[in-house]
Design brief:
The structure is a homohexamer of 69-residue chains.
Chain A lengths: L1 E2 L3 E12 L3 E8 L4 E7 H7 L6 E6 L5 E4 L1
Antiparallel strand pairs in A: 2-3, 2-5, 3-4
Chain lengths: 69, 69, 69, 69, 69, 69
């Protein structure tokens, strides 16, 4: 499957924290930086996300804000 | 200024393409991966974004989708 | 590739309108309803989107607002 | 009220699951496809959402990703 | 029509700038603060948005980032 | 830090409600209108958000829907 989303960052799951309905998943991308994602618990189960698994952080370019110092 | 957004990825601007109202800016983050952002032309001017400038890609965790192969 | 996004609606591309940097693509999903997407021209080219092609509209559940009459 | 959001999909609420602060609501749209929405518990109460109620899934076109096989 | 979106800010349209496909609309909310919106040209036409018109800026709470100095 | 996000509304925190993973924070902006934000509990702690604190609601223009009566 190919996606229109311009940002597909490959990494490894480093933490999965489930709440009552919403989970937070952290993915370490190649340079040691970590990306945090907030998804449904249902998705965590459907994708079988566990610490150590390979995964991608997918981000639509219209959701990326730019900042400068 | 501190942000609630959990993802603030530092990098360098590698391209700025202005459209009629909307611009696309690419930032190379540390590991050679590039993040594409779609922002207003007005923001490009307000931030003085040019190729080579240091910048951050800021992404709210609720905007990050996870994918697995 | 499996996605955490809970909404993956299958359909057929019924129009592709490119702007200077941003394109609008309409996908007719099974019941005659049409979903409009705003993506980069770059994505239209990368996915080879043309009228008549099969495609999916992918939507994160945190981006869905509910309305009632 | 008329909305700029290009996607207003009519359907029927098929499930409402409240978490501690965030709820997940599923709406079956006309062709049997289901759309999942993540909203605040506060909104569930304000709209009186219950299973069987008519409702709309409202999605801004900039939040729709396109995928192809 | 009632919306799950928690933020519905009433104001007056102070500018409408159409691009090739995407328009930028500014709404002055009650205290002189201006909210900028990026929507499709199609929506500008469908809503008949012109300077001086009353309008609402509708924002889902999951799209609001918090910042502190 | 300067942001590409066109909407930075200054206000005061009037409520902080933590869930299991996700918190809802309300900010009263200058004209008495309140903006609700849904962020991670982690962000509430990182920013030290408490009732009465000065804060900004930051919103990307592509996340603002326009509505008219």
């Amino acid at each position: 499957m190919k996606l229109s989303a311009r940002n597909v960052l490959k990494g490894k799951v480093v933490s999965v924290e489930k709440g009552t309905t919403t989970a937070h998943v952290k993915i370490e991308i190649a340079n040691g930086q970590t990306v945090t994602s907030s998804i449904t618990n249902e998705s965590v189960d459907a994708l079988g996300l566990t610490v150590g698994a390979e995964a991608y952080a997918v981000i639509k370019s219209s959701d990326v804000i730019i900042a400068v110092d």
